[in-house]
Amino acid sequence: MTDHITQINYLDPELLQKLGDLELVAREVVEGLRVGSHRSPLRGFSTEFAHHRQYAPGDPIRDLDWRVYGRTDRYYTKLYEAETNFDCHVLIDASASMSYGSGKVNKLEYAKFLAASMAYLVLKQRDSVGLSIFDSEVRTYMPPRSAMGIIVEIDKMLREIVPTPKTTVAKQLHDIALMMKRRSFVILISDLLADVEDIMAGLDHLRFDGHNVVVLHTLDPYELEFPFKGTWRFEGLEREEPLTTQPERIREDYVANLDKYLTALRSGCIGANIDYKTVDTSRPLDGVLNEFFAERATTLNGGAVGARL
What parts of the chain have a pLDDT lower than 50? Predict the structure, then answer.
Protein backbone atom coordinates (compact mmCIF):
# COMPACT_ATOMS: atom_id res chain seq x y z
CA MET A 1 0.00 0.00 0.00
CA THR A 2 2.82 2.40 0.81
CA ASP A 3 4.33 1.98 -2.68
CA HIS A 4 1.00 2.98 -4.19
CA ILE A 5 0.64 6.00 -1.92
CA THR A 6 4.07 7.42 -2.75
CA GLN A 7 3.02 7.65 -6.40
CA ILE A 8 0.16 10.03 -5.57
CA ASN A 9 1.02 13.69 -6.11
CA TYR A 10 -1.46 15.15 -3.67
CA LEU A 11 -2.43 13.28 -0.54
CA ASP A 12 -6.13 13.50 0.26
CA PRO A 13 -7.01 13.96 3.99
CA GLU A 14 -9.32 10.93 3.96
CA LEU A 15 -6.53 8.78 2.52
CA LEU A 16 -4.16 10.00 5.22
CA GLN A 17 -6.72 9.11 7.86
CA LYS A 18 -6.79 5.52 6.57
CA LEU A 19 -3.03 5.22 7.06
CA GLY A 20 -3.52 5.45 10.81
CA ASP A 21 0.19 5.78 11.67
CA LEU A 22 0.90 9.49 12.16
CA GLU A 23 4.63 9.13 11.50
CA LEU A 24 3.84 7.43 8.20
CA VAL A 25 1.38 10.22 7.35
CA ALA A 26 4.02 12.86 8.10
CA ARG A 27 6.68 11.09 6.05
CA GLU A 28 4.38 10.65 3.04
CA VAL A 29 3.36 14.32 3.12
CA VAL A 30 6.86 15.74 3.61
CA GLU A 31 8.50 13.49 1.02
CA GLY A 32 5.96 14.77 -1.49
CA LEU A 33 6.71 18.44 -0.87
CA ARG A 34 8.27 20.48 -3.65
CA VAL A 35 10.16 22.87 -1.39
CA GLY A 36 12.90 23.64 -3.90
CA SER A 37 16.65 23.39 -3.58
CA HIS A 38 17.04 25.72 -0.59
CA ARG A 39 18.18 24.14 2.63
CA SER A 40 15.06 24.87 4.62
CA PRO A 41 11.55 26.00 3.67
CA LEU A 42 11.48 27.57 7.14
CA ARG A 43 14.59 29.60 6.40
CA GLY A 44 14.81 33.27 7.30
CA PHE A 45 14.62 32.60 11.02
CA SER A 46 17.30 33.59 13.49
CA THR A 47 17.16 34.19 17.19
CA GLU A 48 19.90 36.63 18.09
CA PHE A 49 19.83 40.33 17.15
CA ALA A 50 23.30 41.49 16.06
CA HIS A 51 23.31 45.14 14.93
CA HIS A 52 21.80 47.73 12.57
CA ARG A 53 22.88 48.99 9.21
CA GLN A 54 21.37 51.68 7.03
CA TYR A 55 18.54 50.48 4.80
CA ALA A 56 19.46 49.69 1.18
CA PRO A 57 17.02 49.09 -1.72
CA GLY A 58 16.13 45.41 -1.83
CA ASP A 59 16.32 44.85 1.93
CA PRO A 60 13.19 43.09 3.30
CA ILE A 61 10.70 45.65 4.63
CA ARG A 62 9.95 43.31 7.54
CA ASP A 63 13.49 43.89 8.91
CA LEU A 64 13.14 47.66 9.20
CA ASP A 65 13.43 48.95 12.78
CA TRP A 66 10.52 51.37 13.09
CA ARG A 67 11.52 52.42 16.59
CA VAL A 68 14.88 53.65 15.32
CA TYR A 69 13.08 55.40 12.45
CA GLY A 70 10.83 57.16 14.96
CA ARG A 71 13.87 58.48 16.83
CA THR A 72 16.13 59.35 13.89
CA ASP A 73 13.78 59.78 10.90
CA ARG A 74 16.11 57.40 9.01
CA TYR A 75 15.60 53.81 7.86
CA TYR A 76 17.75 51.12 9.45
CA THR A 77 17.63 47.34 8.93
CA LYS A 78 17.99 44.90 11.78
CA LEU A 79 20.65 42.25 11.21
CA TYR A 80 20.70 38.92 13.02
CA GLU A 81 23.24 36.26 13.82
CA ALA A 82 22.17 33.14 11.95
CA GLU A 83 22.11 30.05 14.12
CA THR A 84 22.83 26.54 12.92
CA ASN A 85 19.77 25.15 14.67
CA PHE A 86 16.49 26.60 15.83
CA ASP A 87 13.52 25.60 17.96
CA CYS A 88 10.06 25.21 16.45
CA HIS A 89 7.00 25.11 18.67
CA VAL A 90 3.66 23.84 17.30
CA LEU A 91 0.50 25.04 19.07
CA ILE A 92 -2.65 22.99 18.45
CA ASP A 93 -6.16 24.16 19.32
CA ALA A 94 -8.05 21.09 20.59
CA SER A 95 -11.24 22.90 21.64
CA ALA A 96 -14.72 21.55 20.94
CA SER A 97 -15.20 23.65 17.79
CA MET A 98 -12.21 21.86 16.25
CA SER A 99 -14.18 18.60 16.33
CA TYR A 100 -16.46 19.85 13.53
CA GLY A 101 -16.13 18.27 10.12
CA SER A 102 -18.49 18.16 7.15
CA GLY A 103 -16.56 15.22 5.70
CA LYS A 104 -14.76 12.24 7.22
CA VAL A 105 -11.86 14.34 8.54
CA ASN A 106 -12.64 17.02 11.11
CA LYS A 107 -10.56 20.11 11.84
CA LEU A 108 -8.76 18.55 14.80
CA GLU A 109 -7.77 15.50 12.78
CA TYR A 110 -6.49 17.75 9.99
CA ALA A 111 -4.60 19.85 12.56
CA LYS A 112 -2.92 16.66 13.75
CA PHE A 113 -1.77 15.90 10.20
CA LEU A 114 -0.44 19.45 9.81
CA ALA A 115 1.37 19.32 13.15
CA ALA A 116 2.98 15.96 12.43
CA SER A 117 4.07 17.05 8.94
CA MET A 118 5.61 20.28 10.24
CA ALA A 119 7.31 18.39 13.07
CA TYR A 120 8.72 15.80 10.66
CA LEU A 121 10.02 18.53 8.35
CA VAL A 122 11.75 20.36 11.22
CA LEU A 123 13.27 17.16 12.58
CA LYS A 124 14.48 16.20 9.12
CA GLN A 125 16.40 19.50 9.11
CA ARG A 126 18.00 18.41 12.40
CA ASP A 127 16.26 21.17 14.31
CA SER A 128 14.11 20.80 17.44
CA VAL A 129 10.33 20.82 17.70
CA GLY A 130 8.02 21.17 20.69
CA LEU A 131 4.27 20.89 21.14
CA SER A 132 1.50 22.64 23.04
CA ILE A 133 -2.14 21.52 23.02
CA PHE A 134 -4.77 23.85 24.41
CA ASP A 135 -8.52 24.38 24.72
CA SER A 136 -9.79 26.32 27.73
CA GLU A 137 -6.41 25.54 29.32
CA VAL A 138 -2.93 24.55 28.18
CA ARG A 139 -3.34 20.78 28.37
CA THR A 140 0.12 19.82 27.12
CA TYR A 141 3.42 21.63 26.97
CA MET A 142 6.36 19.70 25.55
CA PRO A 143 9.64 21.66 25.25
CA PRO A 144 11.38 21.38 21.86
CA ARG A 145 13.67 18.45 21.23
CA SER A 146 15.11 16.74 18.18
CA ALA A 147 13.87 13.15 18.65
CA MET A 148 11.73 11.76 15.80
CA GLY A 149 9.62 9.98 18.39
CA ILE A 150 7.88 13.25 19.18
CA ILE A 151 5.54 12.55 16.25
CA VAL A 152 4.29 9.41 18.00
CA GLU A 153 3.82 11.47 21.17
CA ILE A 154 1.79 14.09 19.25
CA ASP A 155 -0.59 11.33 18.18
CA LYS A 156 -0.80 9.90 21.70
CA MET A 157 -1.40 13.31 23.32
CA LEU A 158 -4.14 14.26 20.88
CA ARG A 159 -5.91 10.94 21.38
CA GLU A 160 -6.00 11.59 25.12
CA ILE A 161 -7.51 15.08 24.83
CA VAL A 162 -11.18 15.53 25.73
CA PRO A 163 -12.03 18.98 24.28
CA THR A 164 -13.85 21.44 26.50
CA PRO A 165 -16.75 23.52 25.19
CA LYS A 166 -15.16 26.96 25.39
CA THR A 167 -11.81 28.21 24.11
CA THR A 168 -9.91 31.24 25.35
CA VAL A 169 -7.36 31.52 22.55
CA ALA A 170 -5.79 34.81 23.67
CA LYS A 171 -5.25 33.65 27.27
CA GLN A 172 -3.66 30.39 26.18
CA LEU A 173 -1.31 32.19 23.78
CA HIS A 174 -0.24 34.46 26.64
CA ASP A 175 0.30 31.44 28.92
CA ILE A 176 2.30 29.52 26.31
CA ALA A 177 4.42 32.60 25.59
CA LEU A 178 5.39 32.69 29.28
CA MET A 179 6.39 29.01 29.17
CA MET A 180 8.78 29.30 26.22
CA LYS A 181 12.33 29.93 27.38
CA ARG A 182 13.98 30.58 24.02
CA ARG A 183 12.99 32.49 20.93
CA SER A 184 11.33 30.02 18.60
CA PHE A 185 9.55 29.51 15.31
CA VAL A 186 5.92 29.26 16.51
CA ILE A 187 3.25 27.58 14.36
CA LEU A 188 -0.36 28.07 15.54
CA ILE A 189 -2.95 25.66 14.12
CA SER A 190 -6.48 26.72 15.09
CA ASP A 191 -9.91 27.66 13.75
CA LEU A 192 -9.53 30.93 15.73
CA LEU A 193 -13.22 31.27 16.50
CA ALA A 194 -12.80 34.24 18.81
CA ASP A 195 -12.67 38.02 18.79
CA VAL A 196 -10.00 39.27 16.38
CA GLU A 197 -8.64 41.86 18.83
CA ASP A 198 -8.22 39.19 21.52
CA ILE A 199 -6.49 36.84 19.08
CA MET A 200 -4.11 39.58 17.96
CA ALA A 201 -3.30 40.46 21.59
CA GLY A 202 -2.12 36.89 22.15
CA LEU A 203 -0.19 36.76 18.87
CA ASP A 204 1.41 40.15 19.60
CA HIS A 205 2.70 38.76 22.91
CA LEU A 206 4.53 36.04 20.98
CA ARG A 207 5.94 38.57 18.51
CA PHE A 208 7.03 41.00 21.24
CA ASP A 209 8.95 38.12 22.86
CA GLY A 210 10.90 37.75 19.63
CA HIS A 211 9.21 34.63 18.23
CA ASN A 212 8.70 34.15 14.50
CA VAL A 213 4.99 33.33 14.20
CA VAL A 214 3.01 31.41 11.58
CA VAL A 215 -0.80 31.10 11.72
CA LEU A 216 -2.44 28.19 9.89
CA HIS A 217 -6.10 29.17 10.16
CA THR A 218 -7.84 25.81 9.84
CA LEU A 219 -11.47 25.85 8.69
CA ASP A 220 -13.92 23.31 7.28
CA PRO A 221 -15.14 23.95 3.69
CA TYR A 222 -18.73 24.20 4.95
CA GLU A 223 -17.64 26.99 7.30
CA LEU A 224 -16.02 28.79 4.38
CA GLU A 225 -18.80 28.26 1.83
CA PHE A 226 -21.98 27.70 3.92
CA PRO A 227 -23.59 25.46 1.26
CA PHE A 228 -26.49 24.22 3.45
CA LYS A 229 -29.96 23.96 1.91
CA GLY A 230 -33.39 23.32 3.39
CA THR A 231 -34.11 23.76 7.09
CA TRP A 232 -31.33 23.10 9.60
CA ARG A 233 -30.89 23.16 13.35
CA PHE A 234 -27.34 24.32 14.15
CA GLU A 235 -26.00 23.12 17.51
CA GLY A 236 -23.26 25.21 19.12
CA LEU A 237 -20.15 23.17 19.93
CA GLU A 238 -19.02 25.69 22.54
CA ARG A 239 -22.31 26.18 24.44
CA GLU A 240 -23.85 28.64 22.02
CA GLU A 241 -27.66 28.62 21.76
CA PRO A 242 -28.99 26.30 19.00
CA LEU A 243 -30.35 27.99 15.88
CA THR A 244 -33.06 26.60 13.58
CA THR A 245 -33.16 28.38 10.24
CA GLN A 246 -33.17 28.11 6.46
CA PRO A 247 -29.47 28.68 5.65
CA GLU A 248 -30.17 30.06 2.17
CA ARG A 249 -31.86 33.06 3.78
CA ILE A 250 -28.84 33.98 5.90
CA ARG A 251 -26.03 32.83 3.59
CA GLU A 252 -25.34 36.30 2.15
CA ASP A 253 -24.97 37.84 5.62
CA TYR A 254 -22.91 34.88 6.83
CA VAL A 255 -20.46 35.10 3.92
CA ALA A 256 -20.17 38.89 4.31
CA ASN A 257 -19.45 38.60 8.05
CA LEU A 258 -16.96 35.77 7.46
CA ASP A 259 -15.13 37.83 4.84
CA LYS A 260 -15.00 40.81 7.23
CA TYR A 261 -13.60 38.60 9.98
CA LEU A 262 -11.00 36.91 7.74
CA THR A 263 -9.91 40.26 6.30
CA ALA A 264 -9.46 41.76 9.78
CA LEU A 265 -7.49 38.73 10.99
CA ARG A 266 -5.30 38.59 7.90
CA SER A 267 -4.64 42.34 8.03
CA GLY A 268 -3.78 42.13 11.73
CA CYS A 269 -1.27 39.37 11.06
CA ILE A 270 0.31 41.21 8.14
CA GLY A 271 0.62 44.35 10.26
CA ALA A 272 2.37 42.34 12.99
CA ASN A 273 4.77 40.57 10.57
CA ILE A 274 3.02 37.24 11.14
CA ASP A 275 2.71 34.73 8.29
CA TYR A 276 -0.97 33.87 7.84
CA LYS A 277 -2.71 31.25 5.73
CA THR A 278 -6.32 30.11 5.57
CA VAL A 279 -6.39 26.30 5.36
CA ASP A 280 -9.39 24.49 3.88
CA THR A 281 -9.55 21.03 5.50
CA SER A 282 -10.85 19.44 2.30
CA ARG A 283 -7.57 20.24 0.52
CA PRO A 284 -4.65 17.77 0.25
CA LEU A 285 -1.97 18.32 2.88
CA ASP A 286 1.05 18.49 0.61
CA GLY A 287 -0.75 20.90 -1.71
CA VAL A 288 -1.46 23.28 1.18
CA LEU A 289 2.11 23.10 2.50
CA ASN A 290 3.71 23.49 -0.93
CA GLU A 291 1.59 26.59 -1.46
CA PHE A 292 2.47 27.99 1.96
CA PHE A 293 6.23 27.47 1.52
CA ALA A 294 6.14 29.04 -1.94
CA GLU A 295 4.34 32.09 -0.52
CA ARG A 296 6.78 32.26 2.38
CA ALA A 297 9.74 32.16 -0.01
CA THR A 298 8.21 35.09 -1.91
CA THR A 299 7.78 37.01 1.34
CA LEU A 300 11.37 36.40 2.43
CA ASN A 301 12.62 37.51 -0.96
CA GLY A 302 11.03 40.92 -0.56
CA GLY A 303 7.39 40.30 -1.46
CA ALA A 304 4.39 41.33 0.59
CA VAL A 305 4.31 40.06 4.15
CA GLY A 306 1.65 37.46 4.88
CA ALA A 307 0.49 34.42 2.95
CA ARG A 308 -3.02 34.06 1.70
CA LEU A 309 -5.01 31.28 0.09
Answer: 1-9, 36-39, 44-47, 303-309
190, 217 contact by CB (below 8 A) = yes
**Contact criterion met (CB below 8 Å) for 76 and 65:** yes
Contacts by 117-120 with C-beta closer than 8 Å and gap 24+?
117/25, 117/26, 117/29, 117/30, 117/285, 117/289, 118/88, 118/90, 118/187, 119/26, 119/88, 119/90, 119/150, 119/151, 119/154, 120/23, 120/26, 120/27, 120/29, 120/30, 120/148, 120/151
Closest CA to 31 of 290, 294, 266: 290
How do residues 167-218 score in pLDDT, each as one tens digit?
A: 778 889 999 999 998 888 999 999 998 899 999 999 999 999 889 999 999 9
Phi/psi for 37 (5° steps) reads -90, -10
Q: What is the pLDDT of residues 93-124, one digit of tens each?
A: 998 899 899 988 999 999 999 999 999 888 88
Q: Is 209 exposed, middle or buried (0-12, 13-18, 19+ CB in 10 A)?
A: middle
Asked if 162 and 96 touch (Cβ cutoff 8 Å), the reply is no
Global confidence as pTM: 0.78
User: Going from the N-terminus, what domains does the chain have, and what CATH number goes with each?
Assistant: 2-44+83-300 (3.40.50.410), 48-81 (no CATH)
> 121: Cβ–Cβ under 8 A, 6 or more apart, which residues?
30, 33, 41, 42
